[in-house]
Design goal:
Number of strands: 11
Structural class: alpha/beta
Shape: elongated
Order of helices and strands: HHEHEHHEHEHEHEHEHEEHEHEHH
Strand order of the largest sheet: 7-6-5-10-8-11-9
Mean pLDDT: 92
Low-confidence stretches: none
Strand content: 15-25%
Helix content: 40-55%
Largest sheet: 7 strands, parallel
């Protein structure tokens, strides 16, 4: 097995990568960390931007480089330097308790909000006041799975590039456009002007999701606004929506967690939009 190239925790490269654990440094450098073979593979395949490839460089233990030779080869083929490092160095860079041996340094990949609007989105998840990075990443993953066209994180929400959010997205961060730091009123106004119906998901909503589906109102372009899991959406945010919709609880559960509720809402819209007469069917024909 090859001798690791990086062995010192104090080397300039290791220090620079380690600092990306902090939001202030991520914002200054416009770089973040992607950990594990799945995230690194997605970073390699991401088309990047005019600034260059998404994956800037890859750190790997010799053992991980052997186990995930395809990922390492793809990174090299994409022009990203691959540096082998000791497990101690990888642990210093990594945010996880048990690192998988691969850590990529990536460029920020969020999209300008006007670009998202210009693409005429049909299904969007708006994260307003979502503070938990695990929830943010999981909702992004749900949006990707439901075929959403974009995700918008408002300026009151968690950092998209928080390591926990990146991990929770399970690679979906690299799959669909995401806008960050958009004031919630601006997000709502922009999407509405683009012909998108605004629905706020809230357990205390006046409308019932089943009723929306039964009445056939879900097939139009729609954006779902999701709030903080602990206290929901502020009244001023609820007031911005066209409707405030609750997911019905048919059993004895007190409530649904944010990610589960988001999955139910997004899939309901996706199903309605693909039904005869839905906006995706119309577009396809």
């Amino acid at each position: 097995m090859a001798t690791p190239e990086l062995t010192s925790l104090r080397s300039a490269r290791v220090t620079a990568a380690h600092r990306l654990a902090k939001r202030s440094f991520r914002g200054k450098e416009r770089r973040f960390l992607a950990e594990g073979p799945q995230a690194v593979r997605e970073a390699v395949e991401h088309r990047g931007s005019a600034a260059g490839r998404t994956l800037i460089e890859l750190y790997a233990t010799p053992d991980a480089a052997q186990r995930h030779a395809d990922v390492v080869a793809a990174a090299r083929a994409a022009g990203a330097p691959v540096l082998t490092a000791t497990p101690e160095v990888i642990a210093e860079i990594s945010d996880t308790v048990t690192p998988q041996g691969l850590v990529g340094v990536c460029r920020f990949l969020d999209s300008p909000f006007p670009e998202i609007l210009a693409a005429r989105p049909r299904l969007v998840a708006v994260l307003a006041h979502v503070r938990d990075p695990g929830n943010a990443g999981t909702v992004l993953r749900c949006a990707d799975a439901a075929g959403a066209d974009a995700v918008v994180l408002t300026d009151a929400s968690v950092d998209l590039y928080n390591p926990k959010a990146v991990r929770a997205s399970a690679g979906s961060l690299f799959h669909l456009p995401v806008a960050v730091g958009v004031p919630v009123a601006e997000a709502v106004a922009g999407l509405r002007a683009a012909g998108v119906r605004m629905l706020a998901a809230d357990g205390a909503g006046e409308r019932d999701l089943d009723a929306e589906l039964d009445e056939g109102t879900m097939g139009t372009p729609t954006a779902w606004i999701f709030g903080n899991e602990a206290w929901g959406l502020p009244e001023e945010t609820r007031a911005l929506a066209d409707e405030v919709v609750r997911v019905p609880i048919h059993g004895r559960a007190e409530s649904l967690n944010l990610a589960t509720a988001a999955a139910v809402c997004l899939y309901a819209s996706a199903r309605a939009q693909r039904a005869p007469g839905g906006c995706r069917s119309v577009t396809a024909t």
